[in-house]
Task: inverse folding
């Protein structure tokens, strides 16, 4: 160490020694905890948008507040064979539960007539979490915060639709068909002694939430279709199953990353809910090796078989089949879908990209290309190309895939107009563009670009900034942070 | 039941506050900024998706975040505005540190440097990081690190009357290309 280094180190030591007996300022811990809790709460909203569970957004009490009733008769899992194994009978549950009372969770803002109905793919919804400029976090009151639900056009124009009631926290939204006034949503009454988390449909015109009384709010989201069918992993737990810490941090940043196996030994059951509320229990589901992914048309779900292999569940028939020819080495991961029945596997690093025809699970996956990095979130663009994410960052940020396109066996990055230190933390594809939240995860060293959400044209690579994620200062007296982007189908 | 991260954060604040504050003091212009810097780094660290299995691991992460955040805060007008607001409403001044004369002079000299100079000097001369490691951690180009380290060390030497061997490469003066939100060096992305 140089003389200067020794002097600086001695100064640092002297400062530490001088402050050794002093305690942190009274607001240091409380204020920091408050800020972290707030960020982590809204972070769960972000994760929910990308297709993860709504659990635990406000902690254990809310999480356990909605226990799952005993499931219907058990269904069998897929067997580790190459032959399809039909479950005995997917058990339908009639929609016998009366609709729950509507809960008013937000007040409408004035919007132009027909605005919501005029939206199309590529429009998005976002939570605009605002803090009054100059608020001291350690002394903030509820009046210093407000949350708006805002509609964002593909060009980045913001239209506030609803202001969330001050006694409620929005914990996630899952699914929205552009042009429709309803969105699948969850909300918690955080002022209650025992906060109750509600999952249901939110009317974007009125702010009224109609809970789904037939489905526990703790169910994990797997996916949905334009026709209104939704697919869930429903936990079967009691208090003793709660993992240490209550809220396990997902390994990944975004995507289907709040993994069921993080709640082991809790059993989850694959549940399909029709638009009329009818449910089918398709048996236990596990994501310890292969993650869950719903195919574009809602027919297939991937999971981990009992023997650790890749399981394909046909939601139409209830059949579970283990894909028998997925190579063990290099290990493959679920990379998304290149077509309605074509599952993309990303094998090894550099990755060999292989496609498995879900209708022929005993066939060998065929190689369709290579990638320098692992591929995730593959989504057909409808013109033969496939949008996907490539994992360029190290752990713990090895999840958000930087935007790319697979065409004719070649993976081409769409990041030409991104900054050099921009990395995706989650992506959604709609309207020929990829909506990406940038730089939400920090690997712990190096430079990270500004946290913001952008739309990248999947053909031209043109970038449109849709909003800043954290702490944008405005001149209207409110600092803005945008979380939980949800792109309309 | 509190979450694991809460316990770890509380333990970090209770047990390592002084050392974190000391590092932040080298990198911040004022004691108030140092406290804010530590809290910002804690918030950034525990709001992230990273998982920590030990106090040492979390502290290491926070120390890195302090260095990086010291530059980010200085660059961000919004942060400056928030810091000003916080200071304006702060009911009592931050605790002043009683130090021997030389250390006071060192802190005063550090305060005269730019945030990037401070960060580069501390990481190069205290942490003994290489140019590449410093550049990686701070998101600067290697050329910028050399320039900031050289300029900062030279200024400190002049003000403090110390002699300092240049860090290898620090006194080379290549063309510097700053890497920030507006001007970029390609190459981080393959």
Result:
């Amino acid at each position: 160490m140089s003389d200067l280094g020794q002097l600086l180190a001695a100064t640092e030591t002297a400062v530490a020694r001088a402050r050794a007996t002093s305690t942190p300022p009274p607001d240091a811990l409380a204020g920091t905890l408050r800020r972290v809790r707030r960020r982590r709460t809204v972070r769960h909203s972000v994760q929910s948008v990308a297709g993860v569970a709504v659990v635990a957004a406000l902690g254990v009490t809310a999480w356990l507040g909605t226990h799952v009733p005993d499931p219907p008769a058990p269904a069998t899992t897929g067997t580790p064979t190459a032959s399809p194994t039909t479950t005995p009978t997917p058990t339908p549950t009639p929609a016998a539960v009366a609709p729950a009372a509507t809960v008013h969770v937000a007040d409408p803002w004035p919007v132009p007539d027909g605005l919501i109905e005029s939206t199309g793919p590529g429009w998005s919804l976002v939570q605009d979490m605002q803090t009054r400029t100059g608020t001291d976090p350690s002394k903030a009151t509820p009046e210093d915060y407000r949350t708006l639900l805002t509609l964002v056009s593909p060009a980045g124009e913001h239209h506030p639709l609803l202001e969330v009631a001050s006694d409620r926290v929005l914990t996630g939204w899952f699914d929205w068909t552009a042009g429709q006034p309803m969105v699948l949503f969850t909300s918690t009454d955080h002022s209650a002694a025992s906060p109750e988390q509600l999952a249901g449909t939110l009317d974007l015109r009125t702010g009224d939430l109609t809970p789904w009384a037939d489905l526990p709010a703790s169910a994990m989201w797997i996916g949905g279709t334009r026709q209104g069918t939704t697919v869930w992993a429903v936990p079967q737990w009691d208090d003793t199953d709660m993992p240490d810490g209550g809220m396990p941090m997902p390994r990944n940043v975004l995507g289907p990353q709040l993994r069921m196996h993080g709640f082991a030994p809790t059993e989850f059951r694959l549940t399909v809910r029709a638009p009329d509320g009818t449910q089918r229990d398709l048996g236990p589901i596990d994501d310890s090796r292969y993650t869950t992914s719903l195919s574009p048309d809602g027919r297939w779900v991937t999971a981990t078989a009992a023997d650790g292999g890749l399981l394909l569940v046909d939601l139409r028939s209830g059949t579970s089949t283990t894909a028998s020819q997925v190579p063990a080495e290099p290990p493959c991961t679920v990379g998304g879908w290149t077509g309605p029945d074509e599952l993309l596997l990303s094998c090894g690093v550099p990755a060999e990209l292989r496609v498995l025809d879900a209708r022929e699970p005993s066939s060998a996956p065929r190689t369709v290309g290579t990638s320098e990095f692992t591929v995730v979130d593959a989504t057909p663009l409808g013109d033969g190309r496939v949008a996907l994410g490539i994992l360029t960052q190290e752990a713990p940020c090895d999840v958000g895939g930087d935007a790319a396109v697979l065409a004719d066996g070649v993976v081409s990055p769409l990041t030409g107009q991104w900054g050099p230190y921009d990395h995706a933390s989650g992506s959604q594809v709609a309207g020929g563009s990829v909506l990406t939240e940038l730089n939400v995860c920090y690997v712990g060293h190096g430079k990270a670009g500004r946290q913001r959400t952008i739309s990248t044209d999947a053909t031209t690579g043109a970038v449109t900034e849709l909003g800043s994620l954290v702490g944008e200062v405005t001149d209207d007296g409110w600092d803005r942070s945008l979380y939980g982007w949800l792109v309309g189908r | 039941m509190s979450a694991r991260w809460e316990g770890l954060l509380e333990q970090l604040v209770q047990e390592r506050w002084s050392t974190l504050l000391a590092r932040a003091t080298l990198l911040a212009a004022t004691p108030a900024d140092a406290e804010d810097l530590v809290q910002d780094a804690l918030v950034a660290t525990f709001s992230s998706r990273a998982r920590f299995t030990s106090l040492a691991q979390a502290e290491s992460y926070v120390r890195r975040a302090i260095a990086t955040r010291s530059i980010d805060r200085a660059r961000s007008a919004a942060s400056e505005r928030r810091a000003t607001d916080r200071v304006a409403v702060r009911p009592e001044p931050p605790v002043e540190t009683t130090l021997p004369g030389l250390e006071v002079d060192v802190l005063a000299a550090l305060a005269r440097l730019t945030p990037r100079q401070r960060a580069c000097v501390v990481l190069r001369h205290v942490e003994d990081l290489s140019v590449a490691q410093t550049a990686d951690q701070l998101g600067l180009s290697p050329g910028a690190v050399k320039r900031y380290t050289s300029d900062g060390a030279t200024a400190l030497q002049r003000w403090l009357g110390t002699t300092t061997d240049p860090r290898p490469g620090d006194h080379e003066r290549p063309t510097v290309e700053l890497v920030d939100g507006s001007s970029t060096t390609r190459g981080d992305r393959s």
